[in-house]
Amino acid sequence: TLDVHPTGRHFLQIPGPSPVPDRILRAMSLPTIDHRGPEFGTLGRKVLAGIGQIFRTKHPVAIYPASGTGAWEAALTNTLSAGDHVLMFETGHFASLWKKMADRLGLSTEVLSYEGSDEHLPAAPGWRRGIQADMIEARLRQDTQHRIKAVCVVHNETSTGVTSDIAAVRKAIDAARHPALLVVDSISGLASAPFEHDAWGVDVTVSGSQKGLMLPPGISFNALSPRALEASKTAGLPKSFWAWDEIVDMNKDGYWPYTPNTNLLYGLSESLDMLLGEGLDNVFARHARWAEGVRSAVTAWGLPIQCADPAVYSPVLTGVITPPGVDADAVRRLIHQRFDMSLGTGLGKLKGRMFRIGHLGDSNDLTLLATIAGCEMGLKLSGVKLVGSGVQKAMDFFSSHAAPDTLKK
Ligand code: PLP
Fold first, then answer.
1. 164: in domain
2. Mutate to test the pocket of ligand 1, among 12, 14, 69 (most ligand atoms within 8 A of CB)
3. What is the pLDDT of residues 3-45, one digit of tens each?
4. Does residue 103 belong to any structural domain of this protein?
């Protein structure tokens, strides 16, 4: 419950679902149409062509009426058989959940994790860093029998705010001359952080609607490669709803084998117009700049950023570690009650130790400054001694770092 009567807009600053632009909400309010009629085919063909440009692929993209978890399952069941060995990397909570799913599906999982130490989070040092591609390469080189069938990794780890280098993982697989498929979760990276499905040689990219695409939750994606499609012909894990063959076949004309999520596809069509109209590189620069502004505030507070390696800071969200003894969830609750703002909770091993600020979706410099102000007031009210004002620092940052020329049209 809120301490105040809610007025104005709720600040939804979790790293997905992200705030949905009014333009998209309006587009989704159109009447639902016959999903087998001619008008639908036009919509279907448009969103299928457009989403390929977002993944930067020339190959098919399957769109599911499901949350991201469904698309995770689709990626595994379409490419693998019972007992297949898969290599994963523990970057955080979502990598761990995907491993749990792989185990439940009857795959044999092996998880690599960062082996160094960490002063702030000794129990989870790997949850502050990205994928160590050299460890993947070393493990694949040992696998001379090619027992490992897939390498499954998370691009933007939403639980920590770390964006791993996927091109480096591709290079590691190639350097080891290993035939494993590369399967990547970019559920929260796509359309906010640079992503190149084809150029990085990704076999399956999994994504979802409620993050960088600025849509409500409810549709999710598998971008495919020719090798992934080939693997799907012999993959033995049971699947029906998720099976690519019928979807890819019917998608050629803009239709689906079952009832698609029509109104979310209207939203997707609008989102594609917005993102492709702005230009993806501009979209990425915009998020990188917002992230830098938010990090400047966290640094001014004197609090550690969850991501310990500046090379892999996420443009999508920033994790803030609270001082020892300060329950980050109590801070979040207070901020929600007093200022009607939602922040991301610490997930799994990070419970109570940190909170997450989302800087994606329908945002701008001023909404982010208000977000930082809400955090700063909440931290102070929670008794956290801050070194300096993050709001002031972020104002300085946003006013002295004008949006790049490409952003001004
Ligand atoms: N993977 C990542 C990186 C995520 O951020 C999420 C959701 O936040 C998921 C998987 C699961 O997706 P969903 O909650 O849409 O099923």
1. yes
2. 69
3. 878 899 999 999 999 999 999 999 999 999 999 999 999 999 9
4. yes
AA letter at 355: F
pTM over 0.95: yes
Tokens of 304: 């550690």
* Ligand 1 and 185: CB distance under 6 A: yes
| Residue 104 marked ligand-binding | no
Domain count along the chain: 2
Per-residue pLDDT reduced to its tens digit, 176-189: 999 999 999 999 99
Is residue 4 one of the residues assigned to a domain? no
What ipTM goes with this model?
Answer: 0.99
The response to whether residue 314 sits with its C-beta less than 6 Å from ligand 1 reads no
Asked if 243 and 164 sit in the same domain, the reply is yes
Provide the residue count of the chain.
409
Counting ligand 1 atoms within 8 A of each CB, the residue from 188, 314, 347 with the most, and so the one to mutate, is: 188
Those residues with Cβ within 8 angstroms of residue 238's Cβ, 6 or more apart along the chain or in another chain: 77
Residue bearing the CA closest to ligand 1, atom 15? 68
Mean pLDDT across 90-115: 98
The domain of 191 spans 22-278
Q: How many angstroms does the Cα of residue 321 sit away from the middle of ligand 1?
A: 21
Q: Which of 296, 238, 317, 210 is nearest to 76 (CA)?
A: 238
Q: What is the pLDDT of residue 344?
A: 98
Same domain, 225 and 338: no
Of 388, 386, 329, 375, the C-alpha closest to 354 is 329
Are 15 and 28 contained in the same domain?
A: no
